[in-house]
């Protein structure tokens, strides 16, 4: 082997056009998946293309997605909050407790949001002020928050929520459009603007890519992270209000295991689990994909365990596909 | 993009295959919704429901449930059933209250809703079928332990989760009658969350905490098997008797090894059968599920409803070395 191997490297003299990049983006791939799933479902079940069915289907993802938006920002900034489902449990328990003492709907909303914020602040203090890793802190608070609910409720349940409180989880804004989907849409817009159109959003990306660099660029890294934990707590509070309203009761096992579904949604939405990249519209599409897949399979009476397999395959498939494609392209370009 | 297309095509084919059971127009479609799939008890109930469907002839049975025992999971399943416009839903509920709003919605769209095994609050269903009566079960589980402890002794309880409606009711009923069994001390209650590994650890913990323990009562089919295994592994067969509620197929080994002398269960096959029959009677034959009503359950006789529209199917049945071989292959 005397032949010298010369590595040729392709250096582009210009970037691809904006539209070409949009076409090749993660979001486009995900949107294609969503459309394909929608079409398959329409053919597979005669009940799928029905406004009321689809309206019911949105409940499969709305509450999770509300948290997923805040979680997306947190993960982009290189942190994570695994205590979100437990925050729901604690906020819901607090609301149930208040109901037993005669609280009305406005007070319940205040309590739900406040407990969410406080739990977020609790995580934030440990992560940003004491400098502990967020995954450790929030695994701890995951047990802590739900533990408090279990101590308060034991095997009991809080019932008797006021009738007008049911509006959030069971009400309709107009025709088949639920209150939850409206809240979901509103939050999506707010987070889209926050992440993609503000300095705060740029700071979140900067922190995720290089926290030290961000700090030396004058970004108050810890303060931004503190706010992100507060937002995640607040969104868990909003989700707690919706879920409690939908169930009409509180048990300490409420929303058990939801944190993993939220993280799945975020990752499926194209957010880099290691931080630094991702988009809100990706998460929106991911929410619809997960909702459509679970509902579509539900209509076919596919057992839940098979459904989990599908979601797992979808996640791995969608994540692996661009990588496989890149390898394929690289191989083809090598002489 | 061709890889993606291939994946999607295979998914489409897979979905189409799953959808293949054709929809017959005149059939009464009854959905048997269980707490979670993959639990022996509910698989047996489904077998009974199939038997009822075959007997009735014009019934399409849908056996479904979530992956884990959560109310949220069951709500998703019920929403899918409402969308399919099934005729009846017969459900064993993960949560008494949380399912009420969605089941109310089902009823408002003309779907018959009955609960069985683990009930739903009265406003969320038309009737509830209890496999047996709670006082009888509560009495049975402590009687099973006491029968093998003529001189009295210490017993502990290994339950499912702290929020399990069934287990809590039975333990409550058991506590009401435990004074009838002289010398029997209930020393503690632990929760294995209906997970095999956690139940095993909790049972091992019980034997360490109470070295004089004579019996473990596990009123859950997951817990009793785990507890029996824990007793065998701790070398305490003969000292600690595991009893409670379990499935013959899963308990055959424990009866053989002597870790369990006897246990009880109603017949889940009969339960699924009866629930399906009741759903059919209401949805198709117009039976009125009101307090005081009597509704036919096919070969299981009739169900009498009390003031809360609940009824009990039958007494729990005791399994021991004499009859385990006969039943272990059934469920």
From TrEMBL, chain A:
Q: How does it sit in the membrane?
A: Multi-pass membrane protein
Record carries keyword Isomerase: no
Q: Which InterPro entries match?
A: ABC_transp_permease
Query: So where does this one cross the membrane?
Result: 28-49, 61-77, 109-132, 173-194, 226-248, 254-275, 282-300, 306-330
In Pfam terms, one family for this protein is BPD_transp_2
Q: Any idea which UniProt keywords this protein has?
A: Cell inner membrane, Cell membrane, Membrane, Transmembrane, Transmembrane helix, Transport
Q: What subunit structure does UniProt give? A: The complex is composed of two ATP-binding proteins (LsrA), two transmembrane proteins (LsrC and LsrD) and a solute-binding protein (LsrB).
Question: Tell me, what does this protein do in biology?
Answer: Part of the ABC transporter complex LsrABCD involved in autoinducer 2 (AI-2) import. Probably responsible for the translocation of the substrate across the membrane.
Specify the protein name.
Autoinducer 2 import system permease protein LsrD
Write down the species.
Answer: Paramylibacter ulvae
From TrEMBL, chain B:
- Pfam families hit by this protein: Peripla_BP_4
Signal peptide limits: 1-24
- Outline the extent of the Periplasmic binding protein domain: 30-285
User: What InterPro entries does its record include?
Assistant: Bact_Solute-Bind_Prot2 (IPR050555), Peripla_BP_I (IPR028082), RhaS (IPR013459), SBP_2_dom (IPR025997)
- What are the record keywords, sorted? Signal
Where, by residue number, does the polypeptide cross the bilayer? none
Family matches, as Gene3D superfamilies: 3.40.50.2300
Where located? Periplasm
Coiled-coil residues are none
Q: Which PANTHER family match?
A: ABC-TYPE SUGAR TRANSPORT SYSTEM PERIPLASMIC COMPONENT-LIKE PROTEIN, D-XYLOSE-BINDING PERIPLASMIC PROTEIN
Family of the protein in this entry = Belongs to the bacterial solute-binding protein 2 family.
According to UniProt, the name of this protein is Rhamnose ABC transporter substrate-binding protein
Give the originating organism.
Paramylibacter ulvae
């Amino acid at each position: 082997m005397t032949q010298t191997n010369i590595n040729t490297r392709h250096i582009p003299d210009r970037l691809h056009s904006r539209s070409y990049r949009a076409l090749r983006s993660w979001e486009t791939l995900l949107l294609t998946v969503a459309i394909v799933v929608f079409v398959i479902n329409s053919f597979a079940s005669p009940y799928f293309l029905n406004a009321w069915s689809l309206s019911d289907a949105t409940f499969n993802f709305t509450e999770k997605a509300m948290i997923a938006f805040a979680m997306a920002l947190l993960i982009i900034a290189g942190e994570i909050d695994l205590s979100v489902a437990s925050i729901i449990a604690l906020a819901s328990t607090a609301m149930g407790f208040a109901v037993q003492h005669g609280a009305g709907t406005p007070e319940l909303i205040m309590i739900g949001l406040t407990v969410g914020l406080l739990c977020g602040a609790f995580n934030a203090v440990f992560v940003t002020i004491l400098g502990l890793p967020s995954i450790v802190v929030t695994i701890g608070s995951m047990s802590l928050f739900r533990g408090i609910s279990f101590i308060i409720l034991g095997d009991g349940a809080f019932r008797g929520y006021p009738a007008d409180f049911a509006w959030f989880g069971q009400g309709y804004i107009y025709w088949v459009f639920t209150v939850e989907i409206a809240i979901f849409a509103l939050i999506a817009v707010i987070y889209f603007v926050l992440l993609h159109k503000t300095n705060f959003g740029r700071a979140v990306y900067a922190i995720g890519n290089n926290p030290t660099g961000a700090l030396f660029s004058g970004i108050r890294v810890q303060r931004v992270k503190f706010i992100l934990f507060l937002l995640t707590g607040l969104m868990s509070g909003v989700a707690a209000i919706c879920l409690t309203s939908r169930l009409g009761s509180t048990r300490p096992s409420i929303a058990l295991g939801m944190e993993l579904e939220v993280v799945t949604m975020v990752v499926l939405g194209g957010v880099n689990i290691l931080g630094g990249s991702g988009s809100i519209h990706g998460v929106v599409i991911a929410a619809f994909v997960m909702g459509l897949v679970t509902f579509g399979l539900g209509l076919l009476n596919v057992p839940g365990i098979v459904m989990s397999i599908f979601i797992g395959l979808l996640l791995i498939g969608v994540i692996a596909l661009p990588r496989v494609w890149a390898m394929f392209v690289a191989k083809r370009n090598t002489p | 993009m061709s890889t993606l297309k291939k994946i999607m095509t295979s998914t489409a084919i897979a979905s189409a295959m799953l959808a293949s059971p054709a929809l017959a127009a005149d059939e009464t479609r009854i959905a048997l919704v269980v707490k979670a799939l993959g639990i022996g008890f509910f698989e047996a109930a489904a077998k009974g429901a199939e038997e009822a469907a075959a007997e009735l002839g014009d019934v399409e049975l849908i056996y479904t449930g979530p992956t884990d025992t959560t109310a949220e999971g069951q709500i998703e399943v019920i929403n899918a059933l409402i969308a399919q416009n099934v005729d009846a839903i017969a459900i064993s509920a993960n949560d008494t209250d949380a399912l009420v709003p969605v089941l109310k919605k089902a009823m408002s769209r003309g779907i018959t809703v009955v609960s069985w095994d683990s009930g739903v609050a009265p406003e969320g269903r038309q009737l509830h079928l209890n496999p047996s009566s709670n006082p009888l079960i509560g009495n049975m589980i402590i009687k099973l332990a006491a029968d093998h402890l003529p001189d009295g002794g210490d017993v502990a309880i290994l339950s499912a989760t702290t929020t399990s409606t069934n287990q809590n009711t039975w333990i409550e009923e058991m506590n009401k009658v435990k004074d009838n069994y002289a010398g029997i001390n209930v020393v503690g209650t632990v929760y294995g969350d209906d997970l095999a590994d956690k139940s095993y650890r909790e049972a091992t913990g019980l034997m360490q905490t109470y070295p004089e323990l004579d019996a473990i009562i596990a009123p859950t089919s997951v817990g009793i098997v785990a507890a029996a295994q824990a007793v065998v592994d701790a070398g305490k067969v003969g000292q600690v008797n595991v009893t409670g509620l379990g499935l013959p197929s899963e308990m055959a080994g424990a009866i053989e090894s002597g870790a369990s002398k006897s246990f009880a269960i109603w017949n889940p096959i009969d339960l699924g059968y009866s629930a399906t029959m009741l759903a059919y009677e209401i949805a198709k034959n117009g039976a009125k599920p009101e307090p005081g009503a009597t509704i036919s359950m096919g070969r299981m006789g009739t169900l009498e409803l009390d003031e809360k529209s609940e009824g009990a199917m039958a007494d729990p049945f005791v399994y021991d070395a004499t009859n385990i071989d006969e039943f272990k292959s059934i469920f």
